[in-house]
């Protein structure tokens, strides 16, 4: 009786624990527990419950796949006789209670495909009899407890598809009975521990989809029982240990999406007789295709894509009779496709895209009746497609685009009734393609950029009911867009650009509610004056890109354009003969990135609500008739990268706040009526690459801050009214390739700092008032191909080295006193010895003059004329007497010892003396503000010096 009472108490304990579990279940949609778990029924007869025959205690609980939702209560720990627990594929959530540590008899525990969270409990290490533990597909966080290494009986450990972090425990290899380890799809970091090689019983090792780094341990080759090794999608580096390919039981090797480098062994299949899957794609592997692949006779899946393999594709690959998937794309394979590939009669997928394959497609490939996917795009394949292509009756994806195929599209292609994706674009196919419209399962149809002809069928909506992407650009289409296209209700992308279509753009396009991209540019399409098709398209709430550029629309932008969904990102209507004003409602398109309305007949001002386009990156309103000011509207657009407002009638000043839009890379404001200075704030635009302010009325000095535009490659400031000197800071533009300052009023000299502009290829300074010498240092500009300084006031020697060797005389026309080689059509710079004494005398004279001009201008004049200040008649002063004597009576003023009357070049030398005296007088005027700048004095003296040396 005592024994019976004890048994009753124990089974009651189990019953109460199970009822406590039932109370925590908030959803039992199939009523598994509602109808079975009650006190009216013996607990050992409840659904999912199995009791032991010896102790009549609950031994096994299996509630898997019952769609239950709830928590595990603490009382669950009272099921101390439980050996097997399976709650997999339900929706249990919350933390695992600590009390479960009392389930010391547990051998099998499956909690997979639930919503448990929190850290993986360390108390699992107390379950010393546990053999099977599956926690995959939950929401566990934290690190993997090191206590797992205490479960010496563990044979299967699956923690995949959680959010576990940290390292793989270093002592994981202590689990000597472990046969299955899956830690994939977590957030594990660090390296693969070396101790893993101690788990000698391992048959399956899966560490994929983590952030593991370092090399693959060489010791993995000690796992002689391993049949599946996958460490895909990590950050592993180094080479693949060749010893791995000696594990003869391996059936799957998966190392894709890492950064593994080096070669793979030529004989990799010699010791892998049962290998079925070899996944090495998306690494950095090099070398040729291993010739020994043919020895992997059981191989079903071979993926070498996304590496740097080169050389030919070996013909012996055709001996892999079990091969179903062959992925060789994104490499550098050369040569032709071997005819023997046609022997792979079980092949389902063949991908060879983005290689350097040449020749035609072997006809044998079209006899592989099992083929479902064939992708050969972006190679150098040529020739025509044979009629045998119609044999691929199971083909679902056929991509032959971006090759050099020619000829007609075979009519037999209409036999491909299972075809869903067909891409033949960017080839040279000819003839018609109307037969393809009969393949009703087509989802993607791309024949862009061929020499095809044809019309869109009037019943296109019924013959292509499943079409999602229709790409017919640049195919010589004629006729109109049929209204029935609105029945293609699944269409997301439509490209009819660059064709010969005519007629109105149908308003029925607005019924394509899934439409995301519409490209009709350059198709000669028209519309009514109100552009009503735009109004209809506002019903397409998923539309992101709309391009109607280069069509003669001849209408006015409707106010309804503001009703486009905020999904619209790009709107292109360039060169469409659009008239009228830009509606203010365009400001409603808050997610717009590109707004392109250039080369139209738009009038009025830029709408102020444009400032609401806070995501705008490119604004093209060039070549219109826009008027008014820019104001600060554009300054609100902090992501703006390109402004094209050239060839309008905009006026006023450039806003100073434009320098705050630091994302700007291109500014084109040329051919307007702007009249301000260049704001110094433009120097803040560190990413600006192109600046065009040409053909305006802008004036003032070029700001020194212009030298801060270090990224600039092109700059056009020509045809304005800029004055004063070119700032020396401009020499900081070392990336500038193109610079034109022509037709301004610039003065001063060419800054020597321009020799630092090492990338410069084009420099035009013509039609200004620039004086001084051409700096010899410009000879360092080895990339310079165009250099124009004509119509200025330059003098001195023209450089003849470096890029100046290839310049012609037209670039130096009409300056004051340039000299140099004859090919420049200027006088030679004098170097003759017969005038050496005169030069010496004149150089002394220049030395005296230079000192005197700086210190005592009146004393200089006295030295030259050898007369005392009181030796003049009447009220004349020294300066007045010299001034009245210029230029006709210079000999009355100058000392006769300076210029001899018998000199052969008397007239020229007297002119030089007169010029020097004039410089002296300009230096000693009473008002300091009117005195000549000393930098200009030096330039004037240099010019006179050249004239003297020429005498």
Automatic annotation (TrEMBL):
This is non-specific serine/threonine protein kinase. The keyword Protein transport does not apply. It comes from the Eukaryota. Its EC number is 2.7.11.1. The lineage of its organism: Eukaryota, Viridiplantae, Streptophyta, Embryophyta, Tracheophyta. Residues 288-423 form the Disease resistance R13L4/SHOC-2-like LRR domain. It is a single-pass type I membrane protein. The chain crosses the membrane at residues 842-865. Coiled coil: none annotated. InterPro entries: Leu-rich_rpt (IPR001611), Leu-rich_rpt_typical-subtyp (IPR003591), LRR_dom_sf (IPR032675), LRR_N_plant-typ (IPR013210), LRR_R13L4/SHOC2-like (IPR055414), Plant_RL_S/T_kinase (IPR051716). Pfam families: LRR_1, LRR_14, LRR_8, LRRNT_2. Residues 13-51 form the Leucine-rich repeat-containing N-terminal plant-type domain. Gene3D superfamilies: Ribonuclease Inhibitor, Transferase(Phosphotransferase) domain 1. It is found in: Membrane. Signal peptide: none annotated. It catalyses: L-seryl-[protein] + ATP = O-phospho-L-seryl-[protein] + ADP + H(+); L-threonyl-[protein] + ATP = O-phospho-L-threonyl-[protein] + ADP + H(+). Keywords: ATP-binding, Glycoprotein, Kinase, Leucine-rich repeat, Membrane, Nucleotide-binding, Receptor, Repeat, Serine/threonine-protein kinase, Signal, Transferase, Transmembrane, Transmembrane helix. It is an enzyme of class 2 (transferase). It comes from Datura stramonium.
């Amino acid at each position: 009786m005592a024994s019976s009472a004890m048994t009753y108490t124990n089974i009651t304990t189990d019953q109460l624990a199970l009822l406590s579990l039932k109370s925590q279940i908030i959803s039992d949609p199939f009523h598994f527990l509602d109808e079975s778990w009650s006190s009216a029924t013996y607990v050992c007869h409840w659904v999912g419950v199995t009791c032991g025959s010896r102790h009549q205690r609950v031994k096994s609980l299996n509630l898997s796949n019952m769609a239950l939702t709830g928590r595990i209560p603490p009382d669950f720990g009272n099921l101390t006789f439980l050996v097997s627990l399976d709650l997999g594929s339900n929706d249990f959530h919350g933390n695992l209670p600590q009390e479960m540590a009392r389930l010391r008899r547990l051998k099998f525990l499956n909690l997979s495909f639930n919503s448990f969270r929190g850290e993986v409990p360390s108390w699992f290490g107390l379950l010393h009899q546990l053999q099977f533990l599956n926690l995959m597909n939950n929401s566990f966080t934290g690190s993997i407890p090191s206590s797992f290494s205490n479960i010496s009986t563990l044979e299967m450990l699956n923690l995949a598809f959680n959010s576990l972090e940290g390292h793989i425990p270093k002592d994981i290899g202590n689990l000597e009975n472990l046969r299955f380890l899956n830690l994939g799809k977590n957030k594990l970091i660090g390296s693969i521990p070396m101790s893993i090689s101690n788990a000698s019983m391992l048959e399956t090792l899966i560490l994929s989809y983590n952030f593991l780094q370092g090399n693959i341990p060489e010791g993995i080759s000690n796992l002689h029982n391993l049949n599946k090794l996958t460490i895909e999608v990590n950050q592993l580096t180094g080479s693949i240990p060749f010893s791995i390919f000696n594990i003869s039981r391996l059936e799957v090797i998966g190392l894709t999406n890492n950064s593994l480098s080096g070669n793979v062994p030529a004989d990799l299949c010699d010791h892998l007789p049962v290998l079925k899957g070899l996944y090495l794609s998306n690494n950095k592997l090099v070398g040729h295709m291993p010739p020994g692949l043919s020895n992997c006779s059981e191989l079903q899946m071979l993926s070498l894509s996304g590496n740097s393999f080169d050389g030919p594709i070996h013909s012996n690959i055709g001996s892999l009779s079990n091969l179903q998937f062959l992925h060789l794309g994104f490499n550098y394979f050369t040569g032709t496709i071997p005819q023997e590939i046609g022997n792979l009669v079980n092949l389902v997928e063949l991908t060879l895209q983005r290689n350097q394959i040449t020749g035609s497609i072997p006809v044998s490939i079209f006899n592989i009746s099992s083929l479902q996917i064939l992708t050969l795009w972006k190679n150098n394949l040529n020739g025509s497609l044979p009629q045998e292509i119609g044999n691929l009756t199971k083909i679902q994806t056929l991509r032959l685009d971006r090759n050099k195929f020619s000829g007609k599209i075979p009519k037999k292609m209409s036999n491909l009734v299972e075809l869903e994706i067909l891409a033949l674009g960017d080839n040279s196919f000819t003839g018609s393609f109307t037969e393809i419209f009969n393949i009703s399962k087509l989802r993607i149809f791309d024949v862009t950029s061929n020499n095809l002809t044809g019309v869109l069928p009037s019943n296109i909506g019924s013959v292509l009911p499943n079409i999602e992407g229709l790409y017919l650009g640049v195919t010589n289409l004629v006729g109109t867009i049929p209204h029935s296209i609105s029945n293609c209700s699944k269409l997301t992308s439509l490209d009819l650009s660059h064709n010969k279509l005519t007629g109105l753009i149908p308003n029925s396009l607005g019924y394509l509610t899934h439409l995301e991209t519409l490209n009709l540019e350059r198709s000669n399409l028209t519309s009514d004056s109100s552009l009503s098709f735009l109004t209809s398209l506002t019903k397409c709430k998923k539309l992101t890109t709309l391009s109607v550029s280069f069509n003669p629309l001849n209408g006015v932008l409707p106010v309804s354009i503001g009703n486009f969904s905020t999904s619209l990102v790009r709107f292109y209507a360039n060169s469409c003969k659009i008239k009228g004003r830009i509606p203010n409602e365009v400001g409603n398109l808050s997610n717009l990135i590109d707004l392109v309305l250039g080369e139209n007949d738009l009038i009025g001002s830029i709408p102020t609500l444009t400032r609401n386009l806070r995501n705008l990156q490119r604004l093209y309103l060039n070549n219109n008739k826009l008027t008014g000011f820019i104001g600060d509207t554009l300054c609100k657009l902090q992501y703006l990268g390109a402004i094209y407002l050239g060839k309008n009638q905009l006026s006023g000043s450039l806003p100073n706040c434009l320098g705050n839009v630091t994302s700007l890379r291109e500014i084109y404001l040329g051919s307007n009526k702007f009249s301000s200075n260049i704001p110094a704030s433009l120097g803040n635009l560190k990413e600006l690459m192109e600046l065009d302010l040409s053909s305006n009325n802008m004036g003032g000095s070029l700001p020194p801050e212009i030298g801060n535009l270090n990224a600039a490659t092109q700059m056009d400031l020509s045809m304005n009214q800029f004055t004063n000197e070119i700032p020396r800071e401009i020499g900081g533009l070392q990336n500038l390739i193109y610079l034109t300052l022509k037709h301004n009023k610039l003065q001063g000299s060419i800054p020597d700092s321009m020799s630092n502009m090492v990338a410069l290829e084009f420099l035009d300074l013509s039609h200004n008032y620039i004086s001084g010498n051409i700096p010899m240092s410009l000879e360092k500009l080895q990339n310079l191909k165009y250099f124009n300084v004509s119509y200025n006031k330059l003098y001195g020697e023209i450089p003849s080295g470096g890029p100046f060797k290839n310049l012609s005389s037209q670039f130096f026309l009409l300056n004051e006193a340039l000299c140099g080689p004859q090919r420049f059509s200027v006088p030679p710079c004098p170097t003759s010895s017969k005038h050496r004494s005169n030069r010496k005398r004149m150089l002394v004279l220049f030395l005296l003059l230079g000192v005197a001009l700086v210190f005592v201008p009146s004393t200089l004049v006295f030295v030259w004329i050898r007369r005392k200040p009181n030796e003049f008649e009447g009220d004349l002063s020294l300066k007045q007497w010299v001034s009245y004597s210029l230029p006709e009576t210079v000999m009355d003023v100058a000392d006769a010892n300076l210029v001899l009357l018998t000199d052969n070049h008397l007239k020229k030398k007297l002119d030089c003396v007169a010029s020097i005296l004039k410089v002296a007088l300009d230096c000693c005027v009473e008002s300091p503000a009117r005195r000549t700048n000393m930098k200009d004095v030096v330039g004037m003296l240099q010019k006179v010096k050249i004239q003297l040396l020429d005498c």
